[in-house]
Amino acid sequence: MALIVQKYGGTSVGSLERIQNVAKKVSKFVDEGHQVVVVLSAMSGETNRLTEMAKTMQARPSKREMDMLLTTGEQVTISLLSMALQEKGYGAISYTGWQIPIQTDEVHTKARIDSINADKIHDQLNQGKVVVVAGFQGVTANGDISTLGRGGSDTTAVALAAALKADECQIYTDVDGVYTTDPRVVPEARRLDTITFDEMLEMASLGAKVLQIRSVEFASKYKVPLRVLSSLTEGGGTLITSEDNNMEKPLISGIAFNRDESKLQIRGVPDKPGIAFALLGPIADANIEIDMIIQNQGQDGTTDFTFTVPRGDRAHAHEILEGIAQVLGAREVIFDDSIAKVSLVGVGMRSHVGIASRMFKVLADQNINIQMIATTEIKISVVIKESELESAVKSLHQQFELDKV
Amino acid sequence: MALIVQKYGGTSVGSLERIQNVAKKVSKFVDEGHQVVVVLSAMSGETNRLTEMAKTMQARPSKREMDMLLTTGEQVTISLLSMALQEKGYGAISYTGWQIPIQTDEVHTKARIDSINADKIHDQLNQGKVVVVAGFQGVTANGDISTLGRGGSDTTAVALAAALKADECQIYTDVDGVYTTDPRVVPEARRLDTITFDEMLEMASLGAKVLQIRSVEFASKYKVPLRVLSSLTEGGGTLITSEDNNMEKPLISGIAFNRDESKLQIRGVPDKPGIAFALLGPIADANIEIDMIIQNQGQDGTTDFTFTVPRGDRAHAHEILEGIAQVLGAREVIFDDSIAKVSLVGVGMRSHVGIASRMFKVLADQNINIQMIATTEIKISVVIKESELESAVKSLHQQFELDKV
User: Fold this and answer.
1) pTM over 0.90
2) Residue B242: inside a domain, yes or no?
3) CB-based contacts of B143: which residues, under 8 Å, 6+ apart?
4) Which residue from A309, B70, B209, B347 lies 20 to 30 Å from B87 (Cα-Cα)?
5) Selection from A201, A203, A218, A202 nearest residue A161 by Cα
6) Is A263 contained in some domain?
7) What backbone torsions phi and psi does residue B14 show, to the nearest 5 degrees?
8) pLDDT tens digit string along B261-288?
9) Is B82 in Cβ contact with A62 (below 8 Å)?
10) Is the ipTM of this complex over 0.90?
11) Is B12 contained in some domain?
12) Contacts of B75 in chain A (CB under 8 A)
């Protein structure tokens, strides 16, 4: 017998029929003798519907009232699933965030969980009931309803699993696991049976958006075994765990990529101490996230800075940079929107040299020019032309034999 | 400056535009310097929509989960109205039942209010805010969400007004007040400026369903001045108050009627002590509400019983009565579905004799036969043929000069 926390997203509870399907899936685990806690999102589309209503009422809706409004979405699904389970003859009880309670800070629309009281849930599980909890929502010390932001239901599930000391936290989505890379680009992409938290974080932050990064960080911190699997098909999905030293580590676990960045370059900046901060401080102050940064010293006492930002923020960043360039007397500011970032991710890299050079050779063989390079302990990222992305990912996937177990 | 509790029903908040209208109405009172607490129902149609969903999930939906589901309806309207008020530049904050808290007993779907903590509301009012409270809902000692049953938002408003010691509780509906009788039957029917709680209770229980009886009883008990008025038009509506001895009481305040009853008669019952209980006990046990009762002693040692029940319960009551008739050896059981009850209501009756005889004369002049008569201190009711109802109400309205102030 295990204690399992299962989270079903908006698509999985998107209709009454699908909610009945979830009841069926849950009941199977109960029949196998497990204790099950279910975390639900609102029905898909509901959050948007409510948001539209709010915007009709108020140009910039009050965040406290927005949380009050949006949290009705999960309150609907948890009660309906409890009814569906009861109809099938299973004991079930629903709880909102404040009823548990899931205590959060006061930052409406993106609150962080402070603490969870697991007593009520344990009580109900011990009475043989399935406990159905509203995801995404909590309550402030003040007694106001708060929400954890988009995708917050994943965080709720992981936090509950940690508080309950659950054996596993299962996140049901519309994909059946984590793949070596996006199967839409590489049809040979293979589902991974396991992946480490660190790898998953690198994959997720690069656009492989199976899970919210925050929930993976949370699971990693509290060592909650996390499994991603499909609510529509059968299959074991992908288990995300802390690194196991006995585990035979593959060199590379996957290839992540991101087409959503732009490159900015400021050239001919008079080189002096503090120049990096003078340039990048104002960009950060504007809440623009800088990803890769390269500085290249020239021979004429000037230096060039190249960095990437989310494509949607490029125009804003460019504007800021033009102002700075004028003040500092830099030569010019240029940008490029047609770039892409490709990354090899794998904990096996730590103990193997030569991965980077192998990667560069594969790209060279394809005549793909590398514009920027960045590395971490378990990741090598390169920036290339966006038009060459697919061929880069395909060649790397094949050369590193990611299609083979 | 007064403290006013205003309640708007489902029709008044039935669309985003109507919610904006409510914001406008509320803001007018704030501009006049009043402190305003607003109680809202769910958008019209929403409760039915949610109920249908529940029935798809569970043949007989769990009452606890039903309350969890339905209370999302008001949570949506209170947040939207708060936003609309804020957009107009007014401070506003919404509260659900559990946030106040409005403590109820544990009877899900028809809970009764145990207590209300008014502190939070007073705090917010003193900060100059409009406080928007979800009607219909509360919280049990256990921390479960409860509801007060259909029409419970009126009860919430009155209970809040009592707890806050409000100067007035205004119930906004789709009618503009309480009338001397139904204007669809008597076009000359006149809106009453004031009516006493006792009269209102008699009017309401007879089918003049402007207000939920429970909220009137509550208002009467806690002496909360209650005003019924229209959310769509201007006008002072009808003020319902405790009886004022200095007030010049009209003889008759209004004429109520009810077409929804049936008459049952059991004839030739051997007359002996306890016979009334033997007959009526089983009817009451079946949860059938008996309204008027008449016993008529015959000369042959037998007696006849005549009583009225809601028309929908007549078949069931008849069946029970047939069984009893057999046991007691009664002669026969007959029924009549085509009856109607007409009642004159007025606190002025207490100090005036002869109202009944005047009523009987008016009906006799119209050739209307009276089948049953019942009286209370402030009401005279007669049962007549349903087909003669309209002409009875019209003649009485005219003869008692209810169209004149």
Assistant:
1) no
2) no
3) A99, B98
4) B70
5) A218
6) no
7) -75, -10
8) 999 999 999 888 888 888 888 998 888 9
9) yes
10) no
11) yes
12) 68-69, 71-72, 75
